[in-house]
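Example record

One chain of 470 residues, shown exactly as stored in the release files.
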Amino acid sequence: MSRTTTRSPQDSPEAGQNSESVLSHGLKQRHLSMIALGGVIGAGLFVGSGVGIAAAGPAIVLLFMGTGALVMLIMRMLGEMSAARPSTGSFSVHAEEEIGSWAGTTSGWMYWLMLCAGVAAEATAAGTIMHSWVSFIPAYGWVALFMVFFCASNLTAVKNFGEFEFWFSAIKVAAIVVFLVLGVLGILGVFGSAPGTSHLTGHGGFFPTGVAGLAAGLLTTISGFAGLETVTIAAAESDDPSRNVARAVRTAVWRIAVFYIGSMAVVVTLVPWNNPKVATDGPYVTVLDQLGIPAAGTIMQIVVLVALLSAMNANIYGSSRMAYSLVNRGQGPRFLGKVTRGVPAAAVLASCVFGFAAVIAGIVWPTTVFAWLLNIAGCSVLVVWSIVCLTQLKMRRRLEREAPELLSVRMWGFPYLTWLTLAGILGVFAVMAASADGRHQLVGTAVVVAVLAGAGHLKQRRDRRAADSA
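Predicted structure tokens for this chain:
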């Protein structure tokens, strides 16, 4: 779907709203930088990566290098499009403009579903941690408390969300930096004898579980990066969207690589990959215990709790803004577009209600409804990334013809690296199709995608007929 006019960077399909439905611009550069950095540093890195290490062994470093490269390319594409055309709906708006309503609807609502499911999973995990500390309050009581708190904070000015995320992300980043410093000292033998390469080449070698282990670890590493897109959504509510998102993307890309790949390299060098504590207690706790750091378990539990709460906060924010954008483009129930004092209050409440309903589903139907929801959410990010690649291919060529001055951030090696990224995503789908569990995920995701794409296609046809009859 081509465009024959060039619009200003602030224009989007959401434009033309009255003053009562316009979002505020309370986020600053420091907020976006930390959102970009903290958005992909969650409990998946601190705890979930242990499952990947147990599956793939030391080769997890190579997996994180591969998936990290994929994520950096996706983030660069998002940065290019968002810097040129900032919008609350981010990639969903761009997909609608470049490909059609079906692509905007599919990517937007799939992302909303993923974030809401994430809210439920993170709230449940955070409630479990708090219950282990304060046992007289049940886990679901803590879940309810967290949901109410973050729902209330997201109903206030957007700068409150930005402040929470800034400090949450600062804690997470500080924890990783300290861990990396201690880890390097441990590798050098400061805390005892230097391990050398014994854990990298022993215990079955660098590839102890073969191709099957790499495939299992791949799915774990991919899911750990979900959430990076939030910064491009938040950019539209900053004081200078184009400049801020460009700076945030540039600074975040290499730091993500250092934190993820560096952390995994430290872990598999210092402890045996098949140490059962790596998967049960988490790789960070296991390493700190190995180094003799006092109260390592408690320290990391606090960090994990912060990571979970940070992800909850960011997911409620991101899902509400995506719902708001979709509704204002005629792709959802209109009541979700209500804005109060610069905040999409109805969309915030709807996202929180859906998230809490998913928590209840996890209690009542943990192996059916909740498991299905998490499976769909796990594939959603791959669907979104695929559409991002296709959108960037079209948008870049159009901007080069019509408004090259808007390309303040450019995708590296265009179009070759974009096609390579898309091929990598299709490769992940192929790996999933090779296992029974993966096939179940793909089938469920395909059904949801078909329904959303069908609804978007119908809207596209209605819009076309309306335009022809005008």
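Notes: Residues 1-13, 15-20 have pLDDT under 50 and may be disordered.
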